[in-house]
Amino acid sequence: MTSIFTAMLLQISGPAMACPETSGPQSPPIITELPKFSEKPDGVGLGFAVGEPTGIAAAYRPHERHTIAGVVGWGLRMSSLHIHADYLATVARIQPPESILSVDVYAGAGPTINILDASQPGLGVRVPLGVSLAFQKPVDVFMEVAPVIGLLPSTSLWINGTLGVRTWFQSSKGNG
After folding, report:
1. Disulfide check for 51: which of 15, 39, 136, 162 has CB 3.0–4.6 Å away?
2. Domain 36-169, CATH number (from 2.130.10.10, 3.40.50.720, 3.40.50.2300, 2.40.160.20)
């Protein structure tokens, strides 16, 4: 599937370089290099999350023990646009010998915003606790529970619960 997609993209970007009849300056190909899948969950991860909130999940993992992860989507509890970004630290990694699966247990903290209307956004702090199941392929499945301390417009306490999946791409450092 990836090779078919790559061939199609090369066909789209290639004709500008291959046309011998043109005598003017030639434009560069539209896409010079496709993102490469990571061999493990590190670099940049993109996927989706369902639960509270439901939406697009993104993550950046510069180191195997540190991740910045978030979701932009719909908060079902308040029927609002939900955005959060958390710093996550891996507190334990379980990887049995000869297994294709590794399990990370993580905890963290980060800001959250719920926008019901522009005049009164809800601001708070999330404290997620979660588990990430990573495979030898560049995919991980994550589950987390996050107590949320609402600060604005009023002080409150509630819980977010999310299940998601991400595909990981190599970071621009190209360590693979």
Report:
1. 162
2. 2.40.160.20
